[in-house]
Amino acid sequence: MTSPRSHVPRPARSAALAHRVVGLVALGLSCSLTACSDGAAGDPLEPAFVDALDPDAGAESGGRADAGADAPRDGASPEDARPEDAGPRDAGEAGAPTPWATFGAGIAARQTGLGGGGPRDVVVVYGGFGATSLHVRALVDELFARAFAARGAAWLVAVKGPDDPAYLRRADIANSALAADLTRGGYGAVTLLAHSSGAYVAEELIGQLAPTSGALARVRYYVLDGAARDLAPHRASLGSLRFVYARDGALLSRNASAMQAAAAAAGGAPFEVRATGSGCLAADCLHDAVIIARPWSPTTFDVARDYTQFTADRPVVTSYLVP
Questions:
Q1: H helix intervals, the chain
Q2: H helix or E strand, kind and range, residue 4
Q3: Average pLDDT of 24-44?
Q4: Contact 79, 87 (CB under 8 A)
């Protein structure tokens, strides 16, 4: 199976939350791994999510979105990722919406205010190479507004693109901490979307969830013109799996053949986004047509705009989602 090429560039202290957010482990994430942050240097958020949070924990990190000195690296076990007493808190109660906050290295999360009365559904989106945390947050917000609000998603998680296209460093994203939270209970379905080389990072999370009985059965995984390098051992355990590519006439997205091959290996068929009218003149443009209906550049990908600048005639793409 062909490995996908990924995005390669071409030519104040915040106000304290007025209420206690109870429920859900961490994602409330929050802040048990490193201090929550609103992205401003030296501006850690109030410890409103998890009782076990040390309110001074963010002092050394400076509250930066990329601050992850304490974040577990690849190979760290979920058990080592969080304090033992930072488990679920009254998962039946819905909390109010919260702003984006840093969860761990490369990962941000926020609560939507939906999903009360039972286990909370989570949406996790992995960006491709070149996508910053801010880019992916904008994409997740748009996906929530256009699709996942109606589905009652309670938690949104945005993961920046890997520092290298093949995610060989495996040290820039705190997947093990995220896996720890998702396996502690209190969560419902986990919808996992991975674009381009973000699929390599998503596969790492899937591998970390696999040892926990039943964890993968709750995962709906969508590979958006990406890869399936390490997925084979876990395919049968996933709740659902869909490989997605785009077509505009005879033109296919850059990783279409990889998605077709991966779907065939899994015993199914890929999902083809019908990108007629995309304006694309090259496969690299269609690489982003699984994200936005009309990518901004007709010849290449442009995550800075394609993840963030949605308009009436450039809507976010959601046709691949299982009803």
A1: 26-29, 78-81, 133-143, 175-182, 198-209, 256-265, 283-286, 303-306
A2: none
A3: 36
A4: no
- Total domains, the chain: 1
For residue 26, being part of any structural domain is answered with no
The pTM is what? 0.75
CB atoms closer than 10 angstroms to residue 75:
11
Element (H, E) at 243: strand 240-248
Query: Is residue 54 one of the residues assigned to a domain?
Result: no
Structural domain includes residue 234: yes
- What percent of the chain clears pLDDT 90, i.e. is strictly above it? 65
Of 57 and 128, the structure prediction assigns the larger pLDDT to: 128
Domain that holds residue 261: 95-306
Give residue-wise pLDDT tens across range 239-261.
999 999 999 999 999 999 999 99
pLDDT at 265: 95
Characterize the bridge pairing of strands 120-126 and 107-111: unpaired
Q: Scan for tokens 């991975």, then name that residue.
A: 194
Nearest to 65 by CA among 26, 29, 104, 28: 104
125, 163, 177, 202 from 167: Cα distances, Å: 16, 7, 17, 10
Q: Does any domain span residue 273? A: yes
Sequence letter at residue 40: A
Torsion on CA atoms 128, 130, 133, 138, rounded to nearest 10: -70
DSSP designation for 259:
H
**The domain spanning residue 270 has which CATH number?**
3.40.50
Over the stretch 76-97, which tens digit does the pLDDT of each residue have? 333 333 333 332 233 334 568 9
Angle, helix 198-209 to helix 175-182, in steps of 10 degrees: 40
